[in-house]
């Protein structure tokens, strides 16, 4: 069964007839690896984001650990598996980019949140 390219509700994806909201990886380093990897290989990064954010039924059997914690190797495994299931690679890419975009948005906002939590103003350290 093919994926559907259209998202049904803001922030949700539909794949193999199931609609769900991506669950973002908790690891700061993993999110950073996905973002950096997207510059050199956006298709693998998108597929990796899709696999790592998968929150619906039918999660790919590919394992991030068996890919030696390499997001691009993992993305290749996810892409291969989903294409073997009959999902067009461009659908995997499109849906993966929705997930990757959410990872980027969450990652970019973290420094601002941490700064606000300090309740301090940046200023000259030599105040009297």
| SSE order | EEHHHH
Envelope shape: globular
- Strand residue percentage: under 5%
Helix run count: 4
**Counted beta strands:** 2
Widest beta sheet: strand line-up:
1-2
* Structural class by sheet pairing and helices: mainly alpha
Largest sheet: 2 strands, antiparallel
Distance between the termini: 68 Å
The whole-number mean of residue pLDDT values reads 85
The residue ranges in which pLDDT falls below 50 over 5 or more consecutive positions are 1-7
Cα-atom radius of gyration = 17 Å
Helix content: 40-55%
Task: Describe the protein's architecture and organization.
- The protein is mainly alpha-helical and 128 residues long.
- It has 4 helices and 2 strands.
- The protein has helices at residues 28-40, 42-53, 71-84, 89-118; strands at 13-15, 18-20.
- A two-stranded antiparallel sheet has the order 1-2.
- The longest helix has 30 residues, at 89-118.
- The radius of gyration is 17 Å and the shape is globular.
- 27% of the residues are buried.
- The model is unreliable at 1-7 (pLDDT under 50).
Compile the SSE list and pairings.
Elements lengths: L12 E3 L2 E3 L7 H13 L1 H12 L17 H14 L4 H30 L10
Antiparallel strand pairs: 1-2
Helix pairs in contact: 1-2, 1-4, 2-3, 2-4
Keywords:
disordered N terminus; two-stranded antiparallel ribbon; 128 residues; mainly alpha; 2 strands; single chain; globular; 4 helices
